[in-house]
Design a protein that fits this description.
- It is a single chain.
- The chain is built from 8 helices and 7 strands.
- The protein is α/β, with parallel strands linked by helices.
- The chain has a single domain, classed as NAD(P)-binding Rossmann-like Domain (Rossmann fold, 3-Layer(aba) Sandwich), CATH 3.40.50.
- A 7-stranded parallel beta sheet has the order 3-2-1-4-5-6-7, with helices on both faces.
- The N and C termini lie far apart (36 Å).
- The relative contact order is 0.15.
Length: 252
Amino acid sequence: MILERFRIDGWVAVVTGGTRGIGEAISMALGEAGADVVAVSRTPRPKVEKAIASCGRRYVHLKADLTRREEVREVIPSILERIGRVDILVNNAGIIRRKAALEYSEEDWDATLEIDLTAAFLLSQAAARDMMKRGRGKIINIGSILSFQGGINVAAYASAKHGVAGLTKALANEWAKHGINVNAIAPGFFATDLTEALQNDPERSRSIAARIPAGRWGRPEDIAGAAVFLASPASDFLHGVILPVDGGWLGW
């Protein structure tokens, strides 16, 4: 049965930024599909734990600040010590700093690249070492439509998300032969904390919605299907794909 190919019963899924917004939706979707979930974030949320427990799956919250490289290096070893393996890694955690390029500080640039790109690489590298032992694994990076476009006043974020797309393809080329699928999801404009400034600007919010063929901003749950697909055996022959989930924005 084809639907069985979308099940991930008993797999261990790690979701960074897994307690808010898109990460929360992905954590809960993977739990519903059968995975035990480790949500990595600075703040736990009982809502996520309750939702996953209701599916009969195990949930663990791992506190970590992914802007601090020493904490990033400890994430996968800590999970391996506590649970024993990593089958799915979702590199979702990210930040955005909105400023004109001429006013962009080195601190804002470094912080954005550190969490949005470098952390994704280091976590993928550590997880892949474990996945290779079993000859199977799924790595899902969260890019953006700004993996394809430049945006406005988001030089560091656009650079990082272009980097995520390149990293996805590069790792896929190296690790496909080991049974590891590396793919990415590129969300469009989603109503989350990350886009709060745009949502609170009535003119920008209306103009963005008008530019989206679907006629609305995305909701976190709109990512769930793509995440389960890329995490499951149904996507075993997909490697290096950057999958837009954008309401048709890039096709305009």
